[in-house]
Design goal:
This protein is 58% helix and 12% strand. It has 341 residues and is α+β, with helices and mostly antiparallel strands. Strands 3-9-8-7-4-5-6-10 form an 8-stranded mixed β-sheet, sandwiched between helices. A two-stranded antiparallel sheet has the order 1-2. The N terminus and C terminus are likely disordered.
């Protein structure tokens, strides 16, 4: 015999159908008589009986004599169905808090050991993606004050979901969280969803036309930067970390905040910034693939920007586009181009 709580069985049965709602309304507002309700609604007996069964299982109907049913309060039904779930949630939260209190003090011991192992080098090399994810989760658990991140591209939906679990824990602990993503993320569905969730959790999110590379700073004491194909380096040298913090601050100050109306509500000028970056790269003879990588977009998307620029400036070729951009002063100065290189 199954020992699963009643509400779990009900949830697996799927949501109430419009027919179920119509049956409930008949019993509530018209008549408790089942035959009359079925006749008024014109529902075949077998389907009518299915609706009555679903409503009864959920505590929304109660038999009141032969062929009669009393409509009950949905609020009371919900309380009855979810009571055991609330008890289990409370127990799970208690266990989570207990586990954190028990294992938390060991974190400092573990980090101290890792620091002693690396003493004299200041650098920890991680050679593959699995090692990077595992080590970053360990480091995140030790963060006390701040997380600063710059991401030129975002991972798969699965990677983003896993990252959000770490982000949610950090923000729940009161850690200050600031992140910079490319402007083009505002037009990518998964990235837009990710930014919206981060903003809702209390993170500060900004976007920039050009994001030079991936950078993660933890408590402004530890930096994580890319190293090799899929690997990363964990840096703790105070001079290096301080320099990388200055770089982050520069990127942050030149980035556009995600507005109160959500990431998608940003003014059009953030996409004009992307177009300007495309023009500067074209002026330097960069290929479509190179520009796409720099802007964190697909080559197809980059070519759509290119086609839009040609249409906007009334030209047909790349050469004509470069001449028109130069004539209109859209390329900026040489120093600006050098920063984008």
């Amino acid at each position: 015999m199954s020992t699963a709580p009643e509400h779990e069985v009900l949830l697996s049965d799927g949501p109430l159908t419009p027919q179920d709602v119509a049956v409930y309304r008949q019993f509530l507002e018209v008549s408790p008589d089942a035959d009359e309700a079925a006749e008024r609604l014109g529902i075949p007996p077998a389907r009518f009986a299915e609706s009555v069964g679903r409503l009864t299982d959920r505590g929304l109907l109660s038999p009141d004599g032969p062929y009669r049913h009393e409509a009950l309060s949905p609020g009371l039904a919900a309380l009855a169905l979810t009571a055991s779930a609330h008890v289990r949630v409370h127990e799970l939260m208690r266990r989570i808090d207990s586990t954190r209190r028990e294992l938390g003090p060991l974190g400092a011991l573990y980090e101290g050991h890792r620091r002693r192992e690396l003493e004299g080098t200041g650098t920890e090399l991680l050679t593959d993606g699995a090692a990077v994810r595992r080590r970053f989760a360990e480091l995140s658990a030790q963060v006390r004050r701040s997380v600063l991140t710059v991401h030129p591209t975002l991972g798969s939906p699965e990677t983003l979901r896993a990252a959000r679990e770490l982000d949610r824990d950090l923000l729940a602990r009161g850690v200050r969280y600031r992140t910079v993503l490319p402007h083009t993320a505002r037009r990518q569905r998964e990235a837009l969803h990710h930014m919206t969730l981060l903003d809702g959790l209390g993170a500060q999110v900004r976007t920039a036309a050009v994001v030079p590379g991936r950078l993660i700073l933890l408590d402004e004491e530890t930096a994580v930067v890319p190293a090799g194909a899929g690997g990363a380096a964990v840096l703790r040298d105070p001079t290096v970390v301080a320099f990388l913090t200055v770089i982050f601050d520069h990127i942050w100050e030149h980035a556009e905040p995600v507005g109160a109306g959500g990431p998608g509500s940003a003014a059009g000028h953030v996409f004009e910034d992307v177009e300007a970056a495309v023009l500067r790269h074209l002026a330097r003879g960069r290929s479509d693939d190179f520009i796409a990588r720099k802007l964190g977009i697909s080559t197809r998307t980059m070519r759509r920007y290119l086609a839009g620029l040609c249409e906007k400036l009334g030209v047909e070729t790349r050469f004509q586009l470069g001449v028109a951009a130069e004539r209109l002063g859209l390329l900026g100065d040489t120093r600006e181009q050098d920063r984008d290189a």
